[in-house]
Amino acid sequence: MVQLESYLRAADNSGAKVLKVIKVLGGFHRATGSVGDVVVCSVREAVPNTDIKKGQVVKAVIVRTHKEIGRSNGTYVRFDDNAAVLIDKNKMPLGTRVFGPVAREIRDAGYTKIASLAKEVW
C-alpha cells in the first residue's frame, strides 16, 4: 500500500532511482494505491546524463509493494520493497528493461509490455 509522501524505488532503466509519491490517481481524495495503480511522482534521485532529471514530475505504475496483496485463490504475495516503473501518456514504459520481479496483477491491469519486460512475474 502506497500513499502520499511514500518513497518508491524505480524498477526500470529510465534514469530515475528514487521517486516520491505526490498523488495517487484514480479517484476523488484517493489516499492509497496498490499494485497496478498509477501515481504521480517527483524524482528524488536520478542517474547523471539521462533524460530524467531530479525534481521532474512523472507518472509511474506501481509494480511491487511491501504490503501483501490478496488474490482470489486465497494466497497472498508481498515483496521486499515498494517499486514503480515510469510510464508515458500511452501507458508504455519509458525504460527498456524492468528490474526485479513484478506482480501478476500488472498484466491484469493492462500493462502487458511491463510484464513482458520483467524477468519474473509473481
Automatic annotation (TrEMBL):
Keywords for this protein: Ribonucleoprotein, Ribosomal protein, RNA-binding, rRNA-binding
Gene Ontology molecular functions: large ribosomal subunit rRNA binding; structural constituent of ribosome
Stored PROSITE patterns: RIBOSOMAL_L14
UniProt-listed Pfam families: Ribosomal_L14
Domain of life: Bacteria
CDD domains reported for this sequence: Ribosomal_uL14
An example Gene Ontology CC term for this record: cytosolic large ribosomal subunit
One BP annotation, GO: translation
Family: Belongs to the universal ribosomal protein uL14 family.
NCBIfam families with a match to the protein in the record: rplN_bact
Protein role: Binds to 23S rRNA. Forms part of two intersubunit bridges in the 70S ribosome.
Complex and partners: Part of the 50S ribosomal subunit. Forms a cluster with proteins L3 and L19. In the 70S ribosome, L14 and L19 interact and together make contacts with the 16S rRNA in bridges B5 and B8.
PANTHER family on file: 50S/60S RIBOSOMAL PROTEIN L14/L23, LARGE RIBOSOMAL SUBUNIT PROTEIN UL14M
Protein name: Large ribosomal subunit protein uL14
Organism: Tepiditoga spiralis
Lineage of the species this protein comes from: Bacteria, Thermotogati, Thermotogota, Thermotogae, Petrotogales
